[in-house]
Design goal:
The complex is a heterodimer of chains A (247) and B (271). With 247 residues, chain A is α/β, with parallel strands linked by helices. Helices cover 21% and strands 27% of the residues of chain A. The N and C termini of chain A lie far apart (65 Å). Chain B is α/β, with parallel strands linked by helices and 271 residues long. Chain B has an eight-stranded mixed sheet, sandwiched between helices. In chain B, helix 1 (16-28) crosses helix 13 (233-245). The longest helix of chain B has 14 residues, at 99-112. The two termini of chain B are 20 Å apart. Classes of the chains: A alpha/beta (247), B alpha/beta (271). The A-B interface holds A 146-147, 149-152, 165-166, 168-171, 184, 186 and B 124, 146, 150-151, 153-154, 156-158, 160, 199-200, 202.
């Protein structure tokens, strides 16, 4: 016993995000369940083995009604992994845990009626949509046609930022996706800020004060001097910032 | 209705006050009515540069606080009769400039004058933002060195966001006035090149004023350089800048370079 206690091996805890299906039930639940049954009848096994989150935001329900709904879904083989948008008082130990800070992703493609009727396996179409990693981040982009002036700070966590002009010394751009600067990048560029290591920085001329991708950064002093003044792209390889000329 | 021009820079000591006085005097010599307004409350200098320091009775703060009428505070220049100065207060601080007060003063000046030139204090605080607030045109005074250029860039950002024009969704007309340009130092590569400054700031060039002892001499005798010696090189550069300001497509020449060569590249109309 004591031997086991004196050799504590640390348990590693890691955060990880997954794509889940979010179901938003509507009141009255009876009608909504009928519609759900209709959908399930057209595409057998759609909810099977899928992580499903129940979004009850804005619904005026009590604990009993919520528990009833989760049970109803359980009988239909829809297993709820978490509940979003519920008041803490609604959730007890017998209900799935509360989930928060969900980011919207693209809609799941529902198999059409004829597809479900005609072919025995509608899975391939669904698998394809599931394989796309959070396409929402790639959807939005911001295009700036004016020069970004010193002291200006551009924060766009939703996606890519494109600047047609230059980014001045003392200006900064923070983007969730990649940063494209067609003029000279003299200020700071921070790409892929919410954990997007695939983001890149592109610039027509590199004179940057600081560049960063997914939290890894390089100041002007650490950058290869022969890349200064050139058209450059910058990306992340593991934990190392790499840079190379364009064209 | 007159046109309101703000002469601004962000950085201090680059030549805002010198330029405001020189441009004002140059405009007034063409017979147009010009008011030059000092916004540097607490650190006024325009009265000295214009040689009116011994005639100041009331100032802009007195007008804003209702202690004096605008006509009482305006000082007419002794050499050019269409040139007026509205001095700043030296004893108060910039908090005495209220947005409503400034708006009233500028509106009244616009009615009475062809040009209202606001000499902005350095910095990006109250005095500077109020000086630019009602402007139709901005003249950004910059020296060919990195800190001045970066501060000017910051000011251009504010001109595009914090002015009345910007808030109405209109575009502020901006011009670059490159001052204290030293051809000898430019030859040695000790200064930023004109094209580099233009590339960084990307606004049209209104003129290049050479570094000159004439500027210092003029300010010591309390005279705008465009009045002290109309044939000096800085005075001629200011007269050319005024012509461009009025829409003349006059090519810009870099002091010390062969005349006309540079104009091919940067001689576009300053609009």
């Amino acid at each position: 016993m004591t031997d086991m206690l004196t050799q504590p091996r640390p348990i590693r805890l890691k955060g990880r995000s997954f794509l889940a299906l979010a179901l938003s039930p509507e009141l009255p639940f009876e009608d909504w369940l009928v519609r759900l049954d209709d959908l399930a009848a057209r595409s057998a096994g759609f909810f099977l083995r899928r992580p499903v989150v129940l979004d009850v935001d804005g619904l005026d329900i009590d604990k009993t009604e919520l528990r009833g709904l989760v049970e109803q879904l359980g009988t239909r083989n829809v297993r709820i992994m978490g509940i979003e948008g519920a008041r803490p008082s609604l959730l007890g130990a017998d209900l799935p845990p509360a989930m928060s800070d969900g980011r919207p992703a693209s809609d799941f493609e529902m198999p059409s009626a004829e597809e479900a009727a005609g072919t025995a396996r509608p899975e391939p179409a669904i698998d394809r949509t599931l394989a796309e990693p959070l396409p929402a981040t790639a959807k939005s982009s911001l295009v700036i046609t004016e020069p970004v002036r010193s002291g200006q700070s551009l924060f766009f966590p939703e996606g890519d930022v494109t600047v047609v002009g230059s980014v001045a010394s003392g200006a900064e751009i923070v983007a969730g996706g990649s940063i494209h600067v067609y003029g000279t990048l003299r200020g700071r560029a921070m790409a892929g800020t919410p954990g997007n290591a695939a983001a890149r920085i592109f610039c027509g001329r590199l004179e940057a004060e600081l560049i960063a991708i997914d939290g890894f950064y390089k100041t002007a002093e650490d950058m290869e001097p022969d890349l200064r003044g050139k058209a450059v792209q910058i990306w992340l390889e593991g934990e190392t910032i790499r840079a190379g000329t364009l064209g | 209705m007159g046109k309101v021009i703000v002469v601004t820079s962000g950085k201090g000591g680059v030549g805002k006050t010198t330029s405001a006085a020189a441009l004002g005097a140059a405009l007034a010599q063409n017979g147009e009515k010009v008011a030059v307004v000092d916004f540097d409350v607490g650190l006024r200098n325009l009265d000295l540069v214009m040689g009116a320091e011994r005639r100041v009775v009331y100032d802009i703060v007195n007008v804003i606080q209702g202690e004096a009428k605008l006509t009482q505070a305006l000082i007419r220049d002794k050499r050019v009769e269409t040139l007026y100065l509205l001095p700043a207060s030296q004893t108060r601080d910039k908090d005495n400039l209220t947005p409503e007060g400034v708006e009233k003063v500028i509106a009244a000046l616009k009615k009475a004058f062809d040009w209202v030139i606001c000499d902005s204090p350095a910095g990006i605080e109250r005095g500077a933002t109020l000086a630019m607030r009602h402007a139709d045109v901005a003249i950004v005074v910059t020296n060919p060195e990195v800190s001045s250029v970066r501060d000017s860039d910051r000011i251009i950002g504010l001109l595009d966001s914090k002015t009345l024009k910007a808030e109405k969704g209109e575009r502020m007309e901006k011009h670059l006035l490159l001052t204290r340009y030293d051809p000898a130092r430019a030859d040695r590569g000790d200064m930023l090149k004109v094209e580099d400054v233009l590339e960084i700031l990307s606004i049209p060039l209104l003129g290049i004023i050479p570094e000159s002892m004439d500027v210092l001499r003029a300010s010591n005798i309390g005279s705008p350089v465009t009045l002290a010696d109309t044939n000096s090189s800085p005075a001629r550069a200011y007269f050319d800048a005024v012509r461009r300001l009025k829409g003349d497509a006059l090519p810009v020449t870099v002091p010390g370079e062969k005349r006309g060569f540079f104009g091919k590249f940067f001689g576009r109309k300053a609009a």
